[in-house]
Amino acid sequence: MRIGILLVDNLAPDLASIAGDYDELYRWVFDSPDVELEFHAAHLGELPPSVRGVDAWVIGGSRASAYDDVPWILALRDFVREAYFADMTLIGICFGHQLIADVLGGKAGPADIGWNAGAVTYRRADGSSFDLLASHKDQVLELPHGAEVTVQAEHCPIAGFRIGHQVITVQPHPEFPGELGAELYAGRRHLLGDAVVDRAVASCAADLARREIGDELLDFVRSRPI
């Protein structure tokens, strides 16, 4: 199985020194004997020449907003739209979750509650739950046509959705280990404020379902009907 990762950011060097940059983090999340990854730096204008050639495309997390009017995001939006109508499987994480929703007729934008930071407990539609790190001020506000909510949290009612067997998304970061999250939040004290940062940093000791969610995303691709 070949998975294409469309990178949409780089971590600052001090953060990348903890567990690697995004490419290494995604290698950990999607580590499986039957999976081969390829990477394209979409945020640097490096999109694949074709939407085909892989079993799924992953769009991950970014400091940018999915609705920003900048050339690389506009080009990525066009790529996602073309891939969707070519019946390619799409996986969205955080920024990717929001961008896919926005491109396919939903809406992403700033949440009324402001920033959501730290380990969050997410509830699946079947009643089970898991903890992952969140770091976002934007959310999916409206679902695209044909989508169903698969994951919710107290302050994030659309924390994941799917469209049939083709699209699956999650708002939190399965690629972020706790030690990375703690440093990330500490560096955003000027944005988040002391109370939010202190709570977020303390929460990073939680048992995070990183591998579990990575495996679920891969299983979604494996189980797609031919």
What structural class results from the helix and strand content? alpha/beta
CATH hierarchy, class: Alpha Beta
Biggest sheet layout: 9 strands, mixed
According to CATH, the homologous superfamily is Class I glutamine amidotransferase (GATase) domain
Strand content: 25-35%
Number of strands: 11
Q: Which percent range fits the helix content? A: 25-40%
Shape: globular
- By CATH, the topology is Rossmann fold
Strand order within the widest beta sheet: 2-1-3-4-11-10-9-6-7
Judging by the overall fold, what is the CATH architecture? 3-Layer(aba) Sandwich
Tally of contiguous helical segments:
8
Task: Determine the mean pLDDT.
Answer: 96
Helix and strand run: EHHEEHEHEEEEEEEHHHH
* Number of separate structural domains: 1
Q: What does the radius of gyration come to?
A: 16 Å
Q: What is the terminal separation in angstroms?
A: 13 Å
Which regions are unreliable across 5 or more consecutive residues at pLDDT < 50?
none
What are the SSEs and their pairings?
Blueprint (H helix, E strand, L loop, with lengths): L1 E6 L5 H7 L2 H8 L6 E6 L14 E4 L11 H15 L4 E4 L1 H9 L3 E4 L5 E9 L4 E8 L1 E5 L5 E6 L2 E8 L3 E4 L7 H9 L2 H4 L1 H10 L6 H13 L4
Helix pairs in contact: 1-5, 5-7
Molecular structure report:
The chain is an alpha/beta fold. The chain has a single domain, classed as Class I glutamine amidotransferase (GATase) domain (Rossmann fold, 3-Layer(aba) Sandwich), CATH 3.40.50.880. The chain has 8 helices and 11 strands. The strands form 2 sheets. Strands 2-1-3-4-11-10-9-6-7 form a 9-stranded mixed beta sheet, sandwiched between helices.
